[in-house]
Amino acid sequence: MPEGVSGFQHIAVAPHPEISVAVEETEHIVSFLRDRGIRVSSGFLDDEALPKKVAAGDFDLLIALGGDGTMLRAGHLCGPNDVPILGINMGSFGFLMEIRQDSWKDALDKLLKEDFWLEKRMMLSAEQVRDDQVLGKWDVVNETVVSRGSFVRPVHMKVKVDGRFLATYVADGMIASTPTGSTAYALAAGGPILPPELRTILLVPIAPHLSIDRGIVLAEGSSVAIKVHTNHQAVLSVDGQPPIDLKDGDCVNVRASSHSLQFVRFQDPGYFYRNLTPHMNQNPSTGKTR
After folding, report:
1. What would the pLDDT profile of 150-189 be if each residue is shown by its tens digit?
2. Cα separations (Å) of 173 from 7, 143, 155, 181?
3. Is 60 part of the annotated catalytic residue set?
4. Which of 91, 130, 215, 228 has its CA 20 to 30 A from that of 11?
């Protein structure tokens, strides 16, 4: 085994199953790593086998091939299990991805020489509570959203921070975001862009009506409780996953997770600001970000 690779005993490679070029490139990446003495496994993030192995601690690193959606799924799996992620952009936007499709060989050479650094990003923990019973818990990479459903009517939300009343919002919804998510839905809703290394919780209302219309940045140790008051459909969505119905009186609690995402980076720490303007000049809706 070449010098400098002893830290990587077993690497997982996970392409988006519906991006054919990602599936094809996975074969080349697996061969590339095996030729250099690395044990490699490949599979899809939605399969049963690969997540089980990640949770069991079988891998030192996961290489995700796809778009930002693929990185979100990888984050849900790898963050709670302390497995670093390297993203190879096969989508059209790739805000979270580290390297382009045509540069992965150079990047993996640097990886095996340990010429990289790990960027740690804050995650959130969210739970749905009804009548003092926890109905579900989620690890959050970008944001937790409480919003109206199919009816075009605002939702009344009573928000508390650290157990103290903050405000009652009448709005299309409320976003509780990580700094990573500040460039996602929260940005579209008018929130500020936060550097990824911050450890804060961002609250941004969606189309508030005669309510506080500014985003609020909270300390990492804060807890947020969003209680829904509605006589029509309201929903909870975590990182764009399928919505979960909320009933009148349901509460969504959000706080900082004890886990952090770990992204493999080769650029210097100032990459975020360098890439910010080029990304802002793109419109991800014109393509797919799988």
Report:
1. 889 999 999 999 999 999 999 999 999 999 999 999 999 9
2. 45, 12, 7, 16
3. no
4. 91
The strand pair at 155-161 and 223-229 is best described as antiparallel
Domain ranges in the chain? 10-116+266-286, 123-258
Q: Given CA atoms 30, 34, 36, 40 in this order, what sign does their dihedral have?
A: positive
Q: 203, 174 in Cβ contact below 8 A?
A: yes
pLDDT at res. 280: 63
Q: How many CB atoms lie within 10 A of CB 54?
A: 21
pLDDT of residue 283 exceeding 70: no
Q: Which of 35, 58, 60, 68 is catalytic?
A: 68
Other beta carbons less than 10 A from residue 35's beta carbon: 8
CATH topology of domain 10-116+266-286: Rossmann fold (3.40.50)
Task: Give the integer Cα–Cα distance in Å for 226 and 166.
Answer: 10
CATH topology of domain 123-258: Tumour Suppressor Smad4 (2.60.200)
